[in-house]
């Protein structure tokens, strides 16, 4: 079984996907960390992130491993644990740049499909149900009001001490801008798959969202 969970930034998809995978004893695949890994590797090699040919060459050769342990997901790039290095805002911005490039998306889609075909997978991203696995067994699209998503992002950055003097209105503006970029790109734009279940997470807790999803996957289940 392949479960696809898509949605914009701050919708809660990554947190929800991790918990759903844990409850089902499935493997969780964070496609966002894969794009961040490519951005990180490109910066390490002093490649301009907008140089599609250079970044595509790096993306095609880089070995990305997602390993799960007691402390959660660890990301290894060419054998090096870079988990903590991927959490900085510079890498998040870099990931958005490389993810908008057709050649990189094609390369990463192939890598993601290989991982997903191992089965029993919960994969989250922005194009999983539409491009990566259009025939996924179950599809969900998480969304929320931009102001709420901006608030969540603000809290997350504050907890990680990565706020860099940015205020809440600025973070909300950044979320709206990222939405526009994701939805308007020519290749693999962010959109809800026609057969995906839409869940508005604006006024829901993480546990409530997880419960809705589990009940769809395992009818009659009691998750909490």
Describe the model.
- With 224 residues, the chain is an alpha/beta fold.
- It folds into two domains: 1-26 and 120-210, 3-Layer(aba) Sandwich (Rossmann fold); 31-118, P-loop containing nucleotide triphosphate hydrolases (Rossmann fold).
- It is 49% helix and 17% strand.
- The protein is built from nine helices and eight strands.
- The strands form two sheets. The chain has a five-stranded parallel β-sheet with strand order 2-6-1-7-8, sandwiched between helices.
- A hairpin with a 2-residue loop joins strand 3 and strand 4.
- Helix 1 crosses helix 9 (206-217), helix 2 packs across helix 3 and helix 3 (52-61) runs parallel beside helix 5 (102-116).
- The radius of gyration is 17 Å and the shape is globular.
- It starts with a strand and ends in a 7-residue tail after the last helix.
- 41% of the residues are buried.
- The mean pLDDT is 91.
Helix and strand layout, with pairings?
Layout: E1 2-6, H1 13-24, E2 27-30, H2 31-44, H3 52-61, E3 64-69, E4 72-77, E5 80-81, H4 89-99, H5 102-116, E6 121-125, H6 128-132, E7 138-143, H7 146-159, H8 168-184, E8 197-200, H9 206-217
Parallel strand pairs: 1-6, 1-7, 2-6, 7-8
Antiparallel strand pairs: 3-4, 4-5
């Amino acid at each position: 079984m392949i479960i696809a969970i898509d949605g914009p930034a701050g919708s809660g998809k990554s947190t929800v996907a991790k918990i759903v995978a844990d409850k089902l004893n499935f493997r969780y695949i964070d496609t966002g960390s894969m794009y961040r890994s490519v951005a990180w590797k490109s910066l390490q090699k002093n490649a301009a992130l907008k140089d599609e040919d250079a970044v595509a060459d790096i993306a095609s050769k880089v070995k990305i491993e997602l390993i799960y342990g007691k402390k959660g997901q660890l990301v290894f790039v060419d054998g090096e644990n870079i988990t903590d290095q991927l959490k900085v805002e510079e890498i998040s911005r870099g990931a958005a740049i490389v993810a908008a490039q057709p050649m990189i998306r094609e390369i990463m889609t192939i890598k993601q499909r290989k991982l997903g075909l191992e089965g029993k997978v919960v994969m989250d991203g922005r194009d999983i149900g539409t491009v990566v696995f259009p025939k996924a067994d179950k599809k969900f699209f998480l969304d929320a009001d931009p102001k709420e998503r901006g608030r969540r992002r603000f809290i997350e950055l504050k907890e990680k001490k990565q706020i860099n003097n940015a205020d809440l209105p600025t973070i909300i503006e950044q979320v709206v801008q990222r939405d526009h970029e994701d939805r308007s790109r020519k290749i693999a734009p962010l959109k809800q798959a026609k057969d995906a279940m839409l869940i508005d997470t604006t006024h829901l807790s993480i546990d409530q969202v997880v419960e809705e999803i589990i009940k769809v996957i395992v009818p009659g289940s009691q998750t909490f």
